[in-house]
Amino acid sequence: MRGTVLYAPGDVRVEDRPDPTIEQPTDAVIRLAATCVCGSDLWPYRGIEAIDGPSPMGHEYVGVVEEVGSEVRNVQPGQFVVGSFFASDNTCEICRAGYQTHCVNRQPGAATGGQAERLRVPLADGTLVPTPGMPDADLVPSLLAASDVLGTGWFAAVAAEAGPGRTVAVVGDGAVGLLGVLAAKQLGAERIVIFSRHESRQKLALEFGATDVVVERGDEGVARIKDLTGGLGAHSVIEAVGTQESMMQAIRATRAGGHVGYVGVSHDVALPGEELFFSGVHLHGGPAPVRRFLPELIDLICSRRIDPGKVFDLTLPLEQAAEGYRAMDERRAIKTLLTV
Ligand SMILES: [Zn+2]
Q1: Distance 90 CA to ligand 1 centre (A)
Q2: In Å, how far are 139, 140, 302 from 135, measured between CA atoms?
Q3: Which of 68, 93, 150, 155 meets the CB 3.0–4.6 Å disulfide criterion with 145?
Q4: How far is the CA of 101 from the centre of ligand 1 (A)?
Q5: The dihedral of CA 194, 200, 206, 212: what is its sign?
Q6: Phi, psi of 188, rounded to the nearest 5 degrees
Q7: What is the mean pLDDT of residues 277-295?
Q8: Cα of 102 from ligand 1 centre, angstroms
Q9: Pick from 340, 297, 265, 322: which is nearest to 37 by CA?
Q10: pLDDT digits (tens, 9 = 90+) for 190-223
Q11: Nearest to 264 by CA among 65, 38, 10, 82
């Protein structure tokens, strides 16, 4: 099969890779319908995160089950399924509490690389969620978004306690931040403010339900949120970047008693204890338990109540994955979908 491998920063290649096979009785092998490039793939692509040797890439996937191991009960060959970046048993105490990304048996959900024609998924019964029947082709991008970016934005909005009567601010106008806007809207937030200085991203945020756009960032951005909220700050802030600046902007934009949902993968963030102590702000986040939300998200997508697939503004064949990475790195694309 063909699959994407990162050899060194900036060096992405699509090459012949071994076809995945069932290795454990709890595995499934799926043929991908589509895959995509994640904002977090850009960290190793930019050399900010080290890799040891050539690494198969990609962890967002939807597709049709081709084969299952002898102990798999909940999914069958021929079903269209959505999975996510960690495999989980969905039965341990941590999973049952809705924290499947911290499952006691967790493993990479796409160990053989999700930017490929086929994929082996461990713990298939706990990890994969079948769609009701074969979805129409135009729903595939939205179902793919559910696999990571939508699930992550949704978790951020839930962690930030977005809901009726609340003002939600979103730090980060990448795909996760934009889908955090969509999630906040679905959860009933009254006012949704996106921090963004990119016209195309502002436009999509407004389409997804944002009510206000703030172009300032850092402490100036915080001052604008205070202006918009009677000097108090937002009730709920979604942090979808993962840098020191974005994290401090999120905490400082939140009112006392409010909630920050942080899902940007943290890179060298160090929080000042004294400021945190006196802020009175709740912090919750980390790798999103996408699996918790998949049944609900699949239902919202298949009944066409949400259209998160709009975050894909570049579609390329898998063979052109390198250009897909480049376009996102240079911020020419919000998110690249790769057709398989
Ligand atoms: Zn578990």
Answers
A1: 5
A2: 6, 7, 7
A3: 150
A4: 8
A5: positive
A6: 95, 15
A7: 98
A8: 7
A9: 322
A10: 999 999 999 999 999 999 999 999 999 999 999 9
A11: 38
